[in-house]
Amino acid sequence: MALTKSIGKLSEILSEEPGINLGYCKDHARCNEAFCEMCKYMICPSCLMFGSHQGHKVLDPAKAAQVIRERIAKTQQLGKLAPEYSERFLLDIRDAKIKLAKTQTVAKDQVQESFKSIINTLKRRKEEIEDAVYTHFTDEIEAVDKEEIQWIEKQNLGKKLLEFSNSPDDEMLLNNSFTIMSAIDVLNESSRVKSASLINSVDLTSNIEGKEVGFAQIVRICDSIGKFGEIKNIQYRN
Ligand SMILES: [Zn+2]
Ligand SMILES: [Zn+2]
């Protein structure tokens, strides 16, 4: 049975390697005594007999040390322990990092610039339309105000003429004849129909190259602006 075989080995190990401090097993509060080859881990006898390493192949510490040294040496022979080995990959990776950072800045700037232009255009257009609405209503109200003043004057002329006619004083009537006749002319002017134009709504349709684009459509267009353009993959060795 694998377990008894392993335990047998473990007792051999114990007699062979006194004195080496292999650390302490936190799970079993015992000293570690063997190397679990499967888990690459120093373990205590309880780990092997009852713990999570049951049935795992173990090595005695001296053998384990030898195996580990051999593995290091092999890796060294392949040149993989020299800093220059990692350096080649690091150069590639760092180059990729720089390219990523640069491209991020370009993309960020592009988004900022493009949206600034849309936002500024909308702001300007809003102000233009607001100005147009303001100017229109100011002009219309001014025109109506003028008419009001004229009719207040006519009302006063009417009152004055009544006063003249109610007075028996012919002398005063004759001395004011020009004023009186002019007032009568003014009051007899035929009335004209004036109109004021009201803007009940603002049409926010846009005409683009002869094509009508509704406001809801414009909003929809704004709502879906922007996606990733060309995506370029850069490779780095790993
Ligand atoms: Zn243990
Ligand atoms: Zn194990």
From TrEMBL:
The keyword Zinc-finger applies. It comes from the Eukaryota. Residues 20-61 form the B box-type domain. Keywords: Metal-binding, Zinc, Zinc-finger. This is B box-type domain-containing protein. One of its GO terms (molecular function) is zinc ion binding. The keyword Zinc-finger applies.
